């Protein structure tokens, strides 16, 4: 996977790629990256990259010319040009391999989640466009951008932060970055949140590690972890349980435990109502 990040502040991006697991993945050749400073593609002496929006309004908007030139330097192709090429070419599959997927990080984009992270992790290359100020000229979006993606329903001043969230969520899914076993047991891997985990010492602040984890009985540990995952998901993200049940993605064992735990909650609520 290659990540190309277009930004006004490449130092934010460079620091991330030069640390921790990411740095190791780059050293092994599993990940490649390039940061492009959009300001380098401004032609005036001040390297101006923003101006007031037509029609008025607060804030400034990023200019289309520097972004367009920066995108083309990254190998991005205008969508219409790609369509025209595909019409004249007898190998559209070949075209798709050549065209890089361009993503603009935007609060008005579709919501980023684990399913989308898996989809993007399957790409050979992603070009990530980081906005600032009030955003970018719509003509850049119309001409180059394949996906507008939001990392959540809130506003950030930095598109770079959003880009790094997307990168961190996707690169770890690429073969050779971290172990497959770690990925299988993570939150959202199968519609459930992760179970609680403990390490040494056995007793901390008078609280002891659950006995089952010290037992060495692998099947009992597996059952305990599954139950804890369901309990946590029911308490914190019941929407994930509902989604998983509708999609039929849970095993028979998981569905049985969900039903039992939901019954326990209903009985508990009923007892409370009677006492009141």
Q: What would you say this structure looks like, in words?
A:
This protein is an alpha/beta fold. It has two domains: 178 residues, 3-Layer(aba) Sandwich (Alpha/beta knot), CATH 3.40.1280.10; 73 residues, Trp Operon Repressor, Chain A, CATH 1.10.1270. The protein is 48% helix and 15% strand. The protein has 13 helices and nine strands. Strand 5, helix 6 and strand 6 form a beta-alpha-beta unit. The longest helix has 24 residues. It starts with a strand and ends with a helix.
- Summed up, the helix count is 13
Task: Please count the beta strands (DSSP E, at least 2 residues each).
Answer: 9
Largest sheet: 5 strands, parallel
CA gyration radius, whole angstroms:
24 Å
Order of H and E elements: EHHEEEHHHEHEHEHHEEHHHH
Structural class: alpha/beta
The averaged pLDDT comes out at 91
Low-confidence stretches: 93-97
CATH-derived architecture of the largest domain:
3-Layer(aba) Sandwich
**Which fold name corresponds to the CATH topology of the largest domain?**
Alpha/beta knot
Quaternary organisation of the protein chains: single chain
> Termini distance?
59 Å
Q: Which strand order spans the largest sheet, edge to edge or round the barrel?
A: 2-1-6-5-7
Give the percentage of residues in beta strands. 5-15%
How many structural domains in the coordinates?
2
**Principal-axes shape call:** elongated
Helix content: 40-55%
CATH class bucket of the largest domain: Alpha Beta
Q: Can you say what the CATH homologous superfamily of the largest domain is?
A: SPOUT methyltransferase, trefoil knot domain
